[in-house]
Known about the structure:
Strand content: 5-15%
Number of helices: 9
Helix content: 40-55%
Main location: plastid
Distance between the termini: 35 Å
Low-confidence stretches: 4-22, 160-164, 262-277
GO biological process, one term: response to light stimulus
InterPro entries: Mn/Fe_SOD (IPR001189), Mn/Fe_SOD_BS (IPR019833), Mn/Fe_SOD_C (IPR019832), Mn/Fe_SOD_N (IPR019831), Mn/Fe_SOD_N_sf (IPR036324), SOD_C_sf (IPR036314)
Shape: globular
EC number: 1.15.1.1
Number of strands: 4
Radius of gyration: 19 Å
Structural class: alpha+beta
Catalytic activity: 2 superoxide + 2 H(+) = H2O2 + O2
Strand order of the largest sheet: 3-1-2-4
Mean pLDDT: 84
Order of helices and strands: HHHHHHEEEHHHE
Amino acid sequence: MELKRNEKRRFSRKVAVSNVITAGFELKPPPYPLDALEPHMSRETLDYHWGKHHKTYVENLNKQIVGTDLDGLSLEEIVLLSYNKGNMLPAFNNAAQAWNHEFFWESIQPGGGGKPSGDLLRLIDRDFGSFAEFLERFKAAAASNFGSGWTWLAYKANRLDVANAVNPLPKEEDKKLVIVKTPSAVNPLVWDYSPLLTIDTWEHAYYLDFENRRAEYINTFMEKLVSWETVSTRLESAIARAVQREQEGNDTEDEENQDDEEPEVYLDSDIDVSEVD
C-alpha cells in the first residue's frame, strides 16, 4: 500500500506530538503488578486478558505487517491507515486491539475510582449535567453495547483533515466530551476523536471474575478502578493537540487556497460502525 504525499505529511505531524511505537511491536506490561488490582480484578484475569489475548493481538500484528508499507509506522498510524475509510485492511483488527488494550490497562489503577477534579470535572458537569449523570450514561452505554466491543469517553474536537472516516456526530458542536460505543476492535481514533477513557466489554475482560454479570463488572470498573488522573492528563493533551491541529489546518487551508486546489474529503457512508450516546 503506497501512502499519498498528504498522508505522509499528516502522520509526520502526528508523530511529533505522540510517542512512536514501531514494528516489531512488543507487548507492553500494565503499569502495575498483575495482582495489584485485586480484589476488583483478579491476577487470573490479567494472566489471560493481558498475557494471552493482548499478547496474541501484538504477535499477529507483527506477522501481518512485516515487509509491508505498514512496517515501521507507529501503532496509531497503522490503525488509521488500515481502517481504510471503513473498508478495513487485514491488519486493522489486530492493530486496533493492540492499541485498545494498552490504552485500557493505562486507564485503570490500584485504588482507582472516586471522582475527577479540575478541568475534567468541569467539562463533565458542562456536557453531561453532573458527574452522577455521566456515570449513569456511561454505565448504560457499556451495558447495552451488544456483543464484543468497547465503550469510550472521548474529546470531540474534529480536525480539518477528515479523509479517513465520516463524523458520527456531525450536528454536535465540537470541543466537548462524548460517550461512544464501538463494536469489535473499532475505536474513536478513526473519527478524529481523542479517546480519554475506555472499558473493554468483550467477555474475556470480565468473565473469570464476574461470569455473565456485565453490569457488576462495569460498576466495579467505574467505582474502584478508573484512573481519573490519567484521564485528566489525556484531556489536557487532547485540548492542546486540538489547538495545534486547528492552527495547522488553517495554515494548510491558506496554502490550498493560494494554489486553487480543492481538498479531498471521503465519507465512510457505506457502513455504520458505532452507536453514540
